[in-house]
Amino acid sequence: MSDTSATTTTNAGVEACELSTPQRIEAVLMTVDRPLGDRALAEAAGVKSVEDGISQLNESYESTGRTFRIVRIASGWQVMTMPESAPILARLHAQRQQSRLSPAAMETLSIIAYRQPVMRAEIEAIRGVACGEVLRGLLERRFIRIAGRAEELGRPMLYGTTKDFLRVFGLSGIDDLPEVEGLRRTSSNRTTRAADADESTADDADDAIDAGADDEPDHDPATPAPEGT
């Protein structure tokens, strides 16, 4: 069977489905582990629009005391548990503690989130320590990406956050970041091009860090390497 025939058959099956629009949307969202945008969700559910159906579902969840809602995350929709469930879920996922971000990684990620696009030199100036290995780890975990290059000597790389960062931290956009004293949302606005890709690859991470990222050593060879990475 050709791809066209398979698609036609699949679409026909969706159209023949007797589920209501909210039920179709719910069925799709209950089976995905990443946010789905409006168009992708509508196509998967075989409906014309999704917002009314999502509103009906959330009203139903609230009236019946369910512990989850459908929320907009990183420009898409996903089923998320309510904050009140956090203590129970924390115990359930206690084994994940080993994979949590270190304090150094959280500090670096926070600076990038609030000051993006930002150079490695700026991050290190704020933290007071080298961050080469921390940047590598954040790139490999797809929390940050290479957002472009600054219009400065050597054209150092600029870093920004990804959709995975928004998804993991439950944000619909950077504007949802809480106000934190000393970390105002400011941008250097020095990028020569905006990176359209949502994530940088592990190869990008290796190239950036191995090349010295911003062409700066991790520490002064005459002094011990700083802690915090």
Descriptive report:
By secondary structure, this protein is an alpha+beta fold. It has two domains: 18-82, Orthogonal Bundle (Arc Repressor Mutant, subunit A); 99-210, Arc Repressor Mutant, subunit A. Helix content is 42%, strand content 11%. The strands form two sheets. A three-stranded antiparallel beta sheet has the order 3-5-4. Strand 4 and strand 5 (157-161) form a beta hairpin. It is elongated. 29% of the residues are buried. The model is unreliable at 1-10, 193-205 and 211-229 (pLDDT under 50).
Task: Produce the secondary structure layout.
Layout: H1 3-16, H2 21-29, H3 38-45, H4 51-63, E1 68-73, E2 76-81, H5 86-92, H6 103-115, E3 118-119, H7 120-127, H8 132-140, E4 144-149, E5 157-161, H9 163-168, H10 202-210
Antiparallel strand pairs: 1-2, 3-5, 4-5
Helix pairs in contact: 2-3, 2-4, 6-8, 8-10
Give a short overview.
With 229 residues, the chain is an alpha+beta fold. It has 10 helices and 5 strands; from the N terminus they run ααααββααβααββαα.
Structural category: alpha+beta
Domain unit count? 2
Overall morphology:
elongated
What is the CA-based Rg, rounded?
A: 22 Å
Whole-number mean pLDDT = 77
The number of helical segments is: 10
